[in-house]
Amino acid sequence: MNREQQRLLVLAGGAVALAAVLGLWAWGAIALMLSEFDFEQRARVAEWFGPRLPIGVLALLVLAGGGAALLNLAWRRWVEAPARLLEQARAQLVVDNPAPLAPTAGDTTLRELAIVVDALLQNRRRLRDDVAAQVAAGSARVEQERARLAALMAELTQSVVVCNLDGRVLLYNQRARLQFKALSDAPALAGGAELMGLGRSIYAVLDRQLVAHALEQIRGRLARGAAAPSAQFVTVTRSGQLLRAQMAPVRDAALAGAPLSGFVLLLDNITRDYERDAAQDTLLLGLTEGQRASLGNLQAALELLDDPALAPAQRERFLAIVRDESSAMTRRLQTLAAQSTEGLKTRWPLEEMLGSEFVSAALRRIGSTGVRTGCLEIDAALWLRVDSFALMQALAYLAHRLVDEFEVRALLLRLRAVDGRAQLDLVWTGQAMSPSGRPEGSYRSAQHGGLSVSTETVMSWESEAMRFGSESSALSVRDVLQRHGGEFWFERDRAAHQAFFRFLLPLAADVAAAETDDTLHADSRPEYYDFDLFAQGEQHHALDDRRLVDLACTVFDTETTGLQPAAGDEIIQIGAVRIVNGRLLRQEAFEQLVDPGRSIPEAGIPIHGIRPEMVAGQPRITEVLPAFHAYAQDTVLVAHNAAFDMRFLQLKEAATGLRFEQPVLDTLLLSAVVHPNQASHKLEAIAERFGITVVGRHTALGDAMVTAEVFLKLVPLLADMGIHTLGQARVAAQKTYYARVQY
Fold this sequence. Notes:
49% of the residues lie in helices and 18% in strands. It is elongated. It starts with a helix and ends in a 9-residue tail after the last helix.
C-alpha cells in the first residue's frame, strides 16, 4: 500500500466519523418530529435539545477528528513503520548495504526488533564474507589467467577482437578500439565510443554474410580434420577503408569434436598498402606504355639512320629523336627507381615507445662516445611513434661527428610536444657549426620547406650515409627523417649560448585517447573482456523474455537548459555508460557537450555547472544524436525519471530522422516497485538507501554512473519479488503511481 492509499484510508475514517455525527443529528430530528408527545412535550424537548445540539455536534466532530488522528498514528506506528523496516531489511539482505537499520517511526519494540534484525544481518554478512573469501581463493588461479590474457591482449600491436557466434564482442584490445574509431564514418564525438564495446555487434563494421561465409569455411576444414583451421578475407568498411581479417575458431579444446563457441579476428587496415601498390602499378603501366612508344620511335629512327643516302639534315633530325627518346626513357626509369626507394623507406615499421624511455636509451648510446650526457626537459607522458634503432643511430652519428670535429664535451637531450608533434633536440654548449666561415644561424632541410642560411657541413652530415666508429649504415639522417615523415634542422640559441639539432617526430596515434583524465572513468585496468558472453545467444531469445541480469543496457542522462522540453528547452549535455552481463563498463562511457542554440538560464548554471562558453563551438544536437543512437543500438535504455529524458529525444525525431524505439526502464519506477513505502524516490535518496557514493551529481555522465549502480542494486531486489525478465519489470513499473507523470 503506497502513501496515497494510506492517506485515503485516514480520510475515509474521518468521513465515516462525520457521517455518523450527521446521521445522529438526522435521527434525533426525525425522532423528535415523529414522536407521539403532545405539543407541549415536544416543545419542552425541543427547548432542551435545541441549544445543546451544536455542542453535541461539535463534540462528536472533535471525537471523530481525534479518532482519525489516532487511526493515522496507529497506521504509521504499527503498519507503515514495520513495512518500511521490512523494505530496509530486504534491501540489506539482497544488495548488502552495510548501513544499519534505522526505523523513523514505531514503538520501542519495533526499534529493538530492528537492532536484532541488524545483528542477524551483520552475522550473515560475516558468514557470507567468509564463504566469499574461500571462493575467491579457489578461483584466484582462473582470474589470474584471465588477467594475464587481458594484459597480453592490451599490449599487442595488432587489432584483436573475440566474438561469440552471434557476433557480439566479448574481448578486444586498445588497438582494435582505436582502429574501429578510425574506420567509423560517424562524427568523431564522445571519443568514438559508439562503435566498439563489450556486447556490441561486430557487424557494425563487418558484413554479416562475409563473416558467416568465413565461419562455414572453418567448419568445413574442421570436418576434414584440420588441426588449426583459419580463414582470411578482405572487406571494405562503410567509411571506404580496406580491412584484411584473419579468422580463427574458438572451441573447447578438451572435448573432441566440440562445436564452435565463437571466433577470433586479427584485423589489419591495408588501405595505405593498397593505395601504394595501386600507385606502383599505375607507375609501372605508365612506364611500360611510355617505353614501348619510345622504343618504337628509336627503332624507326635507327632503321632510317642506316640508309647511306640519308641527307645530313635528316640524319641530324633522327639523331635528335634518338637522344630525346633515350632521355625520356632514362627519366621514367629514374622516377620509378626513386618512388620504389621512397616506398621502401616509408614502409619501414614504426613502433610506439614512451618518450622518456627512448631518451634514456639514447643517452646511454650517445654516452658510449665518451661525451657527458644529460637532460634539459623531458615530457614524461609523451609517446613516440618511431623506428627507435634508426633514430638512436642518427643521434649517435651526429654526436660522434660533434665530438670528433668540434670537440664538444657535453650533449643534452630535450623532448616535448609542440603542435601535435614531438620535438626532440640534441643540444650542446659552445662553438656553433660554421667551420667554413659562413654566418652562424639556422639551417633547415630544403626538402621540408625551410628557408634559412644553410651550411655545407650540416648538409653533408644530413645526406651522407651514417658511418662512425665501428658502425656503418646505408641510411642517412635524411632517410631516417623520411621514414618518420619528420623534419630536421640546425639552430643556435644565442640567449642561452646553446646550439642544437632539432628533430620533429610523430606522436603515437592513441596519445590523445590515453591522456584522458576523468575520475568517473578511473580504474586499475580497462575492462575490455567478458568471457561470460560466450554463453549468450541473443538471437534466440525474445527481448521481453530476457532476464534483467542478461540485458545489455545503455544507462543515460541529459542536462538541459530547463524543465520544459515542449516549451523550447534544449539538451546541453548527454552522458551514458553501458552495462553488459551485469557489469558496469566505466571505460566505455559516452559524454558530449551540446550547443543548444539558445541561452542557458543563469538559475540552472549552479546546478549543472555548464556555462555558455563551455558549449560554444560544440556540435549541435542534430550531430550528437546520431552518435548516441549508434552507441545505444541493440541495448535497453535505462534512466532515472526516464520520461523527462525520452521526451527531449522524441522531440528531435523529425530533425534527425532517428527514433529510439528500444525498451526503456526507469529506475524511479523500479524503486517504487521494490520500496513502495519509502518517502522519496529521488536519485540521491535511493543511492543513500543502497550505500552508493554519489560522484559528479548533476553532470550527465555522473548521474548516468549513479543511475547504473542503482539499477544493478535494484535487479536482485526485483528478482526477490519474482520479477526476473524485462517484460515483467516493464509491467510492474507501469502499475506504480509515478508512471502517470508526463512531460
